[in-house]
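Q: Structure for this?
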Amino acid sequence: MADAQTTETMTTILAQYVGLEGPLLPILHAVQAEFGFIPGDVVQMIADHLNITRAEVHGVITFYHDFRNAPAGKHIVKICRAEACQAVGANALSERAFEKLGVDWHGTTANGAVTLEPVYCLGLCACGPAAMVDGKVVGRVDHAKLDKILAEAGA
Amino acid sequence: MKIYVPLDSAALSLGANDVADAIVAHAKDNNLDVTVIRNGTRGMIWLEPLVEIETDQGRVGYGAVEASDVPALLDGTLDSLGLVEDLPWMKGQTRLTFQRCGVIDPLDLADYEAHGGLAGLRNAIAMTPAGIVEDVTASGLRGRGGAGFPTGIKWNTVLGAKADQKYIVCNADEGDSGTFADRMIMEGDPFTLIEGMIIAGLAVEATKGYVYLRSEYPDAIDMMEKAVVLARGAGILGADVLGSGRAFDMEIRVGAGAYVCGEETSLLNSLEGKRGVVRAKPPLPALEGFLGKPTVVNNVISLATVPVVLEKSAQHYADFGLGRSKGTIPIQIAGNVKFGGLYETAFGMPLGELVDTVAGGTLSGAPVKAVQVGGPLGAYMPRDKFDTPFGYEEFDGQGGLIGHAGLVVFDDATNMLGMARFAMEFCAVESCGKCTPCRIGAVRGVETIDRIGKGDADAIPLLEDLCETMKDGSLCALGGFTPYPVLSALHNFPDDFATQKEAAE
């Protein structure tokens, strides 16, 4: 059962999406924007609200890469793995990030500062390798730029 | 002094906001009369941030500008590129869909109209739905998302379907590596897409539209949401579109990081709030689409091209191009290239000219080894296929596809076995799981390529066989087209597969 605070927040969120056709994704995005992840105890509330089963909501949450079931690190660094970025050194860049952070894809550094995620294309294919730091795009990320990003994120 | 600083995310990723801030600060400190206008990108990404200063002769370009260049920029001592319109990259193009991108302030409706915006919609309002469909059919416009299905024929099916509600769904889930045309137009000229969707609505008698926009594009989401609010405020969207008595409104919906949702049926499921699992066809989305209602699902560029077709006439558009590939195609040049960006031109330019001349060869200076055309599901084209003209049928004839018209160039340091493996790995990560050839095949594909990499020659026919099964047995293009990059790598670059074998022996 969700606590009173969570219930109240959820009631506010759910009220914003009444009348939408296909409201589940907008709701899940709003929940994640609020909590930083999709807390397990809100799944039943969403299911009740939409008159679908808890399994259906769970199925949707787990289908999409964006939704997480636990909080991420303080900063999320996404590095593009797609072909255009590979053509200009994305693989070496990822390797350096692994080494610097001591984590693999989807890992969070021991101090909780950085979560490293792969992303398949940010549409910055003519100025790769590309990365995204907390929703902000960064182009032509060489090793020095990566080191700076990670240092600023407190990794 | 009017100064243009792009706000396209490619420009932002290279420091455009810092440059804009520095211009404002320096102008203030020195009492200069400067107006900064944030435009989209012209598409010359290697010059970003490309700053333009308006002069009596036209707009003079400076690039790539850094914040530290700003004092020199404002006192006139920074080297310029000359008039932007006269740069070879701009002069060589035929800009129809992207005519305003990079030119105007994306959210200035008056600027939009002054540059031809809304003319297509006004013409459409004066026409019957069937008349609009006829024009779009006559223009020869085909789906720019990759499948190349004639847009007018799709619209005609939806127009003919009887229902209490029909929908226009814009597929803005541009997940293909090497493509960014959708993002560029949504960030640089969002009203064009809105106008195209309204015209589609008038043509098929749909009153509601959705843009399904990928979450990896936060700047485009922000821009589209602002543009929709402005269009609604100006009476372009709403119960009475430009006083026509006809209704059309739309919403922006954000995806959640699933590549497969670029496939139209899985997109529709996602829009409905379900897992983005592919639906079997038939029924066609044109008859049973969003919430089971007749739905036009079109790519951003297809819809954004409709206004210019209605503005300048179907014949004007159809006069460009080659064979059954009519009109222009915004080609996105990416990867290891000297000049990367968006180049809109009539269909028919040979691949080699695009790579060697327009793109200027590789950034690294090493020879070009392969060009992947059409995203992660497109074939790797070797140099001996560089005379292939850019067209749907022409690429199909060479065992490839043009897809969403992205070119990713690789130099000779690239290991094609590695690229083939990546294609299978990507398919395994992104498979929706509905059909076995894709779900299991992609995983087995990675394992089989690893066997080849370790020197097991017997695994090569196995890989070919697996690819045949995936091609024939998959429900959608993800499983069905992953064999394109894999087999093209294997067949066009056998050395990368053989060398590994010999090395192991």
